[in-house]
């Protein structure tokens, strides 16, 4: 466990403006943040430059999505090269809102993962089952299939964080219990051991997302295979600091 640095990402989604994000950034810049936690804030693409210019350098910046090629006639899209040009180091790919609101396929997500990694961006790769899949008992099948497509597109796992985000827990206030999160994380690590390597299974951070709050983060963080969080709603509030410090 000590091998894996605790990782906390804030996913601002399509929220905020320069005024409110500026206030959040000042709160984060002046907060006491546990040194042993890697912190990344995912800003809307139009605010990547703003976030990078204003956030303290100890906090990294991520984009929330990108396209699968470097440039061209793809109106409305952004490339990993542009994200890097704005000083951001990470991108979230395969988020459930991209999968289920915008209809992104596993195949497209895989292509994006490959291109982002080739361009030296770290990738927060998201997977997770829907409520009906959990109720039908197919959680493992679903998350293994999603992970498989990601794995086929990764050469070096050093720049990948895997985010397990059950769709039924995202933005709903229904957090997975620490036992439910641990169970899936442990199985995902075993999947990595069987299908990739021992080294990757031991070193890849598997983070949990879905209604993480200042109140529930410590118990979730105490689970052996929970290596951090991807936080939506609570990342826009001062309690994000408590989540960053969940293992402090
Ligand atoms: P939530 O979002 O914390 O608001 O549930 C998590 C996410 O979508 O990454």
From TrEMBL:
Superkingdom, natural source: Eukaryota
* Pathway(s): Carbohydrate degradation; glycolysis; D-glyceraldehyde 3-phosphate from glycerone phosphate: step 1/1; Carbohydrate biosynthesis; gluconeogenesis
* Example GO BP: glyceraldehyde-3-phosphate biosynthetic process
Care to name a GO molecular-function term for this sequence? Answer: methylglyoxal synthase activity
- Assigned keywords, A-Z: Gluconeogenesis, Glycolysis, Isomerase, Lyase
As recorded in UniProt, its EC number(s) are 5.3.1.1
What reactions does this protein catalyze?
Answer: dihydroxyacetone phosphate = methylglyoxal + phosphate; D-glyceraldehyde 3-phosphate = dihydroxyacetone phosphate
One GO CC term of this entry? cytosol
What InterPro entries does the record point to? Aldolase_TIM (IPR013785), TIM_sf (IPR035990), TrioseP_Isoase_bac/euk (IPR022896), Triosephosphate_isomerase (IPR000652), Triosephosphate_isomerase_AS (IPR020861)
**Short name of one Pfam family:** TIM
Describe the function of this protein: It is also responsible for the non-negligible production of methylglyoxal a reactive cytotoxic side-product that modifies and can alter proteins, DNA and lipids.
What quaternary arrangement does the UniProt entry report?
Answer: Homodimer.
UniProt lists the family membership as follows: Belongs to the triosephosphate isomerase family.
Q: What is this protein called?
A: Triosephosphate isomerase
- What is the native source organism of this protein? Astatotilapia calliptera
């Amino acid at each position: 466990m000590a091998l894996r640095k605790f990782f906390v990402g804030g996913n601002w989604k399509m929220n905020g403006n320069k005024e409110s994000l500026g206030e959040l950034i000042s709160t984060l810049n002046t907060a006491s943040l546990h040194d042993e936690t890697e912190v990344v804030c995912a800003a809307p693409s139009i605010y990547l430059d703003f976030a990078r210019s204003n956030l303290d350098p100890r906090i990294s910046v991520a984009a929330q999505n990108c396209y699968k090629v470097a440039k061209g006639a793809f109106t409305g899209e952004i490339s990993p090269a542009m994200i890097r040009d704005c000083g951001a180091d990470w991108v979230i790919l395969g988020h459930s809102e991209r999968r289920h609101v915008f209809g992104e396929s596993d195949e497209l997500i895989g292509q994006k993962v490959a291109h982002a990694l080739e361009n030296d961006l770290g990738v927060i790769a998201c997977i997770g089952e829907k409520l009906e899949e959990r109720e039908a008992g197919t959680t493992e099948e679903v998350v293994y299939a999603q992970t498989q497509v990601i794995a086929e597109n990764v050469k070096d796992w050093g720049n990948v964080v895997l985010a397990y985000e059950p769709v039924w827990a995202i933005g709903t206030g229904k957090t997975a219990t620490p036992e439910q999160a641990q169970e899936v994380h442990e199985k995902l690590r075993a999947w990595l051991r069987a299908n990739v390597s021992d080294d990757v299974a031991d070193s890849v951070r598997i983070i949990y997302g879905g209604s993480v709050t200042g109140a529930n983060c410590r118990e979730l963080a105490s689970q052996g295979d929970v290596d951090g969080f991807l936080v939506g709603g609570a990342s826009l509030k001062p309690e994000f600091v408590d989540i960053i410090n969940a293992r402090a």
